[in-house]
Amino acid sequence: MRMIELDIHAEEHFARIHSMLRDFPGGVEKAMRGVMSRAIATARSESLKAITSVYDIKKDDVRDRKNTTINMITKNVDGGIIGVIHYSGHKIPFYRFGVTPTEPKKRPYRVPVMIGDRWVLAHPGVEVKARQLKKNPMKKIDNAFIARMENGHTGIFERKSRTSSKITEKMGASTAEMAHNAVVLEEVEEKTMETILKRTEAEIHRILNGYGR
User: Fold this and answer.
1) What is the pLDDT of residue 161?
2) Residue 5: other Cβ atoms inside 10 A
3) Residues spanned by CATH 3.30.70 within the chain?
4) Distance CA 132, CA 138 (A)
5) Pick the CATH number of 2-90+173-208 from 2.160.20, 3.40.50, 2.40.128, 3.30.70
6) CB-based contacts of 17: which residues, under 8 Å, 6+ apart?
7) C-beta separation of 96 from 126 below 8 A
8) In terms of C-beta density within 10 A (0-12 exposed, 13-18 middle, 19 or more buried), how is residue 49 classed?
9) Which carries the bigger pLDDT value, residue 50 or residue 122?
10) What pLDDT is stored for residue 137 in this prediction?
11) If we measure between CA atoms, which residue out of 90, 99, 110, 91 comes closest to residue 156?
12) Which of 33, 110, 115, 166 is the most exposed place for a label (fewest CB within 10 A)?
């Protein structure tokens, strides 16, 4: 699992909340919760949008990963306050990115393959091509094939060599790694800051006008 942090430099906005609402019991906390709630919602939605614009992967294959999390917290840094977006999660199977063919396929003929200490005849899988970044062309993966396991899981599997019986699933980038892409980072930071700016003023006015108390 890998975790990456994206610092959202919103010191002046958070400081404004403290300055304007420090005399209102619980006002600062309520305003911060409101701002952070909208900010994390924006970070999540913009992360998905930016990731799928750069990487050849569907939103559902990023969003529905149970081991992927995107959270946001605040912390003090050099006397100020910044927002920190945490991206964490395991690597996503390469099969979930751009791949061809998309279903397991075997060639009609058989070839000798060394399994353990003996040779057997087996139908080789068709050539597999894949990519992660949309801007890149599909590239052949040597000694790879697409297979569906007994539990229904489909993936790209690799042999260490043509004569090896050791097979492993090829994994792609994690959500954290994709979020760390420079294009993704810039887009997420920009949109999240826009949300923080808007919600800061909205939350201040809401509490000053007596709402949420």
Assistant:
1) 64
2) 14
3) 2-90+173-208
4) 9
5) 3.30.70
6) 28, 31, 32, 35, 200, 203, 204
7) no
8) middle
9) 50
10) 95
11) 99
12) 166
